[in-house]
């Protein structure tokens, strides 16, 4: 029997789900419902007439592993191969990442030599912690914070500086609250399987990742973007979906409620109209899904609500000429240095192709807030653009010694943009999926709130949701 599937949320997760559903003859109709005026969610590129492109959300995607290969495969299916911009592994933007500690920039240790020497701001060579790690006994807890895990297995100093910064540079979150099991599954699995992260990395954690070996053509890339910015991807997906007869895509179509009647969803929209669907794939942020589900699904909504998200202030800046004292991907700031200032991306180093046409410029993005948003800026509703801009330009001056003012800037406050996988996230997922299955709810959860926040993970979650359903229909 053919079915009508509604995909709720037109971010990259929802578009990916539709793309994969549209390939199946078993689905009679796919309806994409996006609440805002555009598709793509956090993939949002500001394009200026002079050719410059500034990213509000993701600016580069790693082509690593099965999910990395998968995303590039979709890019290729959409005919975007000639649009790809890539950074090779031997480029400075791949080799150089910095930490801003004690008022100075420090290059993060990389390569074998970097592990053997004492490199400031660390007080000992990393090799000490690495060798000791193999002797540390296995943890007994089902989950642990990223900070506790790294302190226990490697060293408190690495946890306080490097891991604290890394969690801010991926989740805009606090490594003392984030779950190692859900945020960094390979680390958790390596300890489970081999009793050690180092041994797990050397021997593998027992799970084959055969797709890594399929990634032949892109193995020299460390990240990729697209010629007119990351937004090109949702645009291409939207265009491709519009060409399919069995697919309807709707924006400015906010879902207000989902009610189940006789095994069929009745979806109420903001304009008062309703539509029916046999199955819903939700790619909404968990809390947004919680607010549209019926009261009867309370055990599920309670779990969904406990997945909170962080708000990030993003400031894109453009400076005349080359103004950076160092070159590389960017720098991160540990929470002990400045809780509100997460880091600065040196966009024009990774992707100079996205600079304006004409003379040389430096494009930077300053990211602030995250878990520390309120303590830094106060209430979200009261913070002014000027306060945020001043904080960003002040950081560029003090961290990078840039004294000239930016020639262009864009301030954006991305409310609840990155889900936080706090301690026990895996248990919450298990409870939610058990509830859905026990109650035979025709509902699949996909998107960044559950199994990975990266663009690759989210594309994969949309694909898995679609393929899981098509297999069942
Ligand atoms: C600042 C920032 C930097 C990032 N950098 C990187 C990076 O460098 N590399 C990387 O891999 N990833 C990065 N990410 C992560 C990645 O971009 C996101 O995790 C991913 O885009 C989330 O996609 P999604 O489809 O799950 O959710 P969203 O993009 O949140 O899409 C959900 C959609 O649902 C819609 N919606 C909400 N409520 C309703 C409703 N009631 N009815 C209908 N529609 C609704 C929203 O409008 C939205 O379009 C970054 C994210 C941010 C915020
Ligand atoms: C300073 C804040 C942030 C910066 N990027 C993000 C935030 C919150 C968001 C983000 N960055 C990455 C991802 C995807 C993760 C993945 O698994 O691919 C997300 C959601 C990529 C990333 N960026 C940094 C790291 C260590 C990673 C993980 C993958 C990798 O190693 O490439 C470092 C980093 N991010 C930012 C800066 C300034 C920075 C470091 C120099 C910005």
From TrEMBL:
Gene Ontology biological process: heme B biosynthetic process; protoporphyrinogen IX biosynthetic process
Listed pathway(s): Porphyrin-containing compound metabolism; protoporphyrin-IX biosynthesis; protoporphyrin-IX from protoporphyrinogen-IX: step 1/1
One GO CC annotation: mitochondrial intermembrane space
GO molecular function, one term: oxygen-dependent protoporphyrinogen oxidase activity
Cofactor: FAD
EC numbers for this chain: 1.3.3.4
Name of this chain's protein: Protoporphyrinogen oxidase
Organism: Triplophysa tibetana
């Amino acid at each position: 029997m053919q079915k009508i599937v509604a995909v709720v949320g037109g971010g990259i997760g929802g578009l990916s789900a539709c793309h994969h559903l549209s390939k199946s003859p078993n689905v009679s109709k796919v309806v994409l419902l996006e609440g805002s005026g555009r598709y793509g969610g956090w993939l949002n590129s500001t394009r200026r007439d002079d050719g410059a492109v500034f990213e509000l959300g993701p600016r580069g995607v790693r082509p690593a592993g099965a999910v990395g290969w998968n995303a590039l495969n979709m890019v290729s299916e959409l005919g975007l191969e000639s649009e790809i911009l890539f950074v090779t592994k031997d480029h400075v933007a791949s080799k150089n990442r910095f930490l801003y500690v004690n008022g100075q920039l420090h290059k993060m240790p990389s390569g074998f030599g970097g592990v053997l020497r004492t490199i400031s701001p660390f007080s000992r060579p990393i090799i000490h912690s690495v060798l000791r790690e193999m002797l540390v006994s296995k943890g007994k807890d089902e989950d642990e914070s990223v900070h506790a895990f790294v302190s226990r297995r490697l060293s408190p100093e690495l946890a306080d500086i490097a891991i604290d910064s890394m969690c801010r540079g991926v989740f805009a979150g606090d490594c003392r609250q984030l779950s190692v099991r859900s945020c960094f599954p390979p680390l958790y699995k390596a300890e489970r399987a081999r009793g050690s992260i180092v041994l797990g990395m050397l021997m593998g954690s027992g799970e084959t990742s055969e797709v890594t070996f399929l990634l032949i053509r892109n193995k020299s890339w460390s990240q990729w973007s697209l010629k007119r910015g990351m937004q090109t991807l949702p645009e291409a997906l939207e265009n491709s979906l519009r060409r399919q007869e069995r697919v309807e895509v709707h924006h400015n179509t906010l879902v207000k409620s989902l009610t189940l009647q006789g095994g069929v969803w009745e979806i109420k929209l903001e304009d008062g109209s309703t539509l029916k669907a046999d199955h819903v794939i939700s790619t909404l942020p968990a809390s947004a899904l919680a607010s549209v589900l019926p009261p009867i699904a309370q055990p599920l909504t309670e779990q969904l609500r406990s997945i909170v998200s962080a708000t990030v202030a993003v400031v894109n800046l453009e400076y005349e000429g080359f103004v950076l004292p160092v070159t590389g991907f960017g720098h991160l700031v540990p929470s002990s240095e400045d809780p509100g200032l997460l880091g600065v991306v040196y966009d024009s180093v990774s992707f100079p192709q996205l600079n304006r046409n004409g003379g040389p410029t430096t494009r930077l993005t300053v990211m602030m807030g995250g878990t520390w948003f309120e303590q830094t800026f106060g209430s979200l509703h009261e913070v002014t653009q000027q306060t945020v801009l001043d904080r960003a330009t002040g950081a560029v001056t003090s961290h990078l010694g840039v004294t000239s003012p930016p020639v262009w800037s864009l301030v954006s406050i991305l409310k609840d943009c990155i889900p936080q996988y706090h301690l026990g996230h895996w248990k919450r997922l298990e409870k939610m999926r058990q509830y859905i299955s026990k109650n035979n709810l025709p509902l699949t959860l996909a998107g960044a709130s559950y199994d990975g926040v990266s663009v690759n993970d989210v594309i994969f979650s949309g694909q898995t949701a679609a393929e899981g359903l098509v297999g069942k229909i």
